[in-house]
Specification:
The chain has 272 residues and is an alpha+beta fold. Helix content is 33%, strand content 28%. It has 9 helices and 15 strands. An 8-stranded mixed beta sheet has the order 6-10-4-1-5-13-14-15. It has a 3-stranded antiparallel beta sheet with strand order 2-12-11, with helices on one face.
Length: 272
């Protein structure tokens, strides 16, 4: 699968060390990442099960937001679980999903790397360089990965978030399948990216210690690199550094420099 990855930084270390830096979901620029929704009727039985895993703080926060409710400490401490569950349902249903909890859950297990298909439109190409290559100052690397050996998923674009059915919310198979879908489902607003994602368990890749944690990397075969393009505003120092690495370690890889199209709002490329 031929894919582009845009770099606003570390393109030189990516090529020099032959490894891709993998990101956490919580580092992404879209706050809707890995957020699902619930559908169907929320019953007292569901609320009672929710209370089994909700912390005291979760319960207090939810109850304190209910206008005109009794003191949340009183309700939590004095009502039997079933009565408290009934109060939840009668007072507004299930507490909203906490995106920070969802992101933390994803961060605990997975790391991701994002690419774009190579056949995006000229308009989309301008946006991708603008958003992900430091306003056209960066570098774009074309990779050719084997879909049979890497967990690559083409992103689906939707108006609605992935849905967990309340009736199956405690069915681990159903819930896990929906959560997996959230990794490669985004809002329609992002459709211009034509994105493909590498989603991988963090414990299966290389990690290096940094202050307060680790960075995770995926090594790649240099023959996976098929071309390198320098942005319209890419400076001569970056071009020189990356070109030196390519001539040494990737002699088979062509290089191009991006320029303004002479007439259109588009980009044209010239060999360099």
């Amino acid at each position: 699968m031929r894919l582009h990855r845009y770099f606003g930084s570390h393109s030189d270390t990516t090529l020099g060390e032959k490894r891709l830096l993998l990101a956490k979901v919580s580092d992404f620029n879209d706050p809707f990442e890995f957020i699902h929704r619930f559908v169907g009727d929320y019953t007292v039985d569901h609320a009672e099960k929710d209370l089994q895993w909700m912390t005291d703080t979760d319960v207090h926060i939810f109850l304190s937001k209910i206008e005109g409710s009794l003191d949340s400490n009183y309700l939590k401490e004095c009502l039997p679980r079933r009565r408290l569950a009934e109060f939840f349902v009668s007072s507004g249903g299930r507490p909203p999903i906490d995106p920070h909890y969802s992101h933390k859950l994803a961060d605990n297990y997975f790391r991701l790397c994002c690419f774009s298909m190579t056949d995006v439109t000229p308009d989309s190409e301008i946006l991708l360089w603008s958003h992900y290559a430091k306003s056209h100052q960066g570098v774009r690397i074309e990779f050719d990965f084997d879909e049979q050996t890497l967990p690559l998923f083409k992103v689906n674009y939707s108006h609605y978030r992935c849905a967990v059915e309340f009736a199956k919310a405690y069915d681990g198979t159903h819930t896990n399948e929906v959560l997996k879908q959230t990794f490669h489902t985004k809002a329609l607003a992002w459709a211009y990216e034509n994105e493909v994602r590498l989603v991988i368990y963090k414990d299966s890749v290389v990690k290096r210690p940094i202050p307060l944690g680790y960075k995770y990397y995926l090594q790649f075969d240099p023959h996976c690199v098929k071309s390198v393009d320098f942005g319209i505003n890419c400076d001569s120092e970056t071009i020189e550094v990356v070109s030196t690495i390519l001539k040494s370690d990737y002699p088979h890889v062509p290089m191009r420099k991006a320029f303004h199209h002479t007439e259109d709002y588009a980009i044209e490329y010239r060999p360099t």
